Amino acid sequence: MNIVFLGPPGAGKGTMAERVADETGLAHVSTGDIFRDNIRHETELGRKVKELIDRGQLVPDSITIELVQDRLHEADVQLGWILDGFPRTRPQAEALSEFARVDLVILLNISDEEVIRRLSGRRVHPESGRTYHVEFNPPAKEGHDDVTGEPLIRRDDDDEESIRTRLSVYKEQTEPVIAYYRKHKLIVDVDASGTIDEVQTKIHSLLKE
Ligand code: AP5
Ligand code: MG
How far is CA 22 from CA 15, 64, 94, 110, in A? Predict the structure, then answer.
């Protein structure tokens, strides 16, 4: 089964994709995580995309499409995948339909106020991408990753200005992707405003259907 998670920044795509991947054995493919890994390791790709990502702008389609196409040809994703953060433009959605089959699109809906609440309290473990929230999903020891004990950070694009840019980029460039998948009758809407466990339960039952 191949699933796309869609939704605004901070909707919980990464959090839910990670949980569903653990539950189902599907591979979790996050374009944001791939870009951030490249930035951390100062690769050529990382240097190219850092400034755009920090400002909340999208990486050009040509780069992103090729990256995902290569990733979906790797061995560990052949039993099915969850795409988190891709496609987020109409050309990306059209390109994806040419090299892969999408079975289901889960759209996580939340309000702009909730986006700001979630992103301003988010903390991440850069190495693994594990995500916490100071209030809604705190680590066992404040400011430290549960598994490694290493310090947590705030993402560089989680400042107020970048969040505003990401929200408007989402409205302009990613909402057409929703329309595209609605036309293809692949979208299931999920109210993502509940707690993490509540949203996970909703997704669990819709996947059972
Ligand atoms: P990406 O990493 O995809 O960022 P995003 O879309 O802005 O989404 P986020 O990762 O911020 O949020 P999320 O929905 O995963 O929420 P999370 O689970 O963390 O992309 C980053 C950048 O990379 C882009 O801006 C762009 O520059 C570039 N990029 C990536 N893909 C691209 C593409 N396809 N094309 C072009 N450029 C691309 O949850 C958020 C917080 O809320 C956490 O603290 C979490 O603990 C908490 N939380 C989650 N669920 C709940 C809940 N139900 N209740 C309470 N708290 C919750
Ligand atoms: Mg994410």
Answer: 11, 25, 28, 24
Ligand nearest to the CA of 169: 1
For the chain, the structural domain boundaries read: 2-208
- What is the CATH architecture assignment of 2-208? 3-Layer(aba) Sandwich (3.40)
Is 130 marked active-site?
Answer: no
pTM (2 d.p.): 0.96
**Ligand 1 centroid vs 126 CA: distance in angstroms?**
14
Q: How far is the CA of 10 from the centre of ligand 2 (A)?
A: 7
Candidates 71, 90, 117, 155; catalytic one: 155
177: Cβ contacts below 8 Å, ≥ 6 apart: 6, 87, 88, 89, 90, 92, 93
Q: Is 122 designated active site?
A: yes
pLDDT by 10s per residue, the chain, length 209? 999 999 999 999 999 999 999 999 999 999 999 999 999 999 999 999 999 999 999 999 999 999 999 999 999 999 999 999 999 999 999 999 999 999 999 999 999 999 999 999 999 999 999 999 999 999 999 999 999 999 999 999 999 999 999 999 999 999 999 999 999 999 999 999 999 999 999 999 999 88
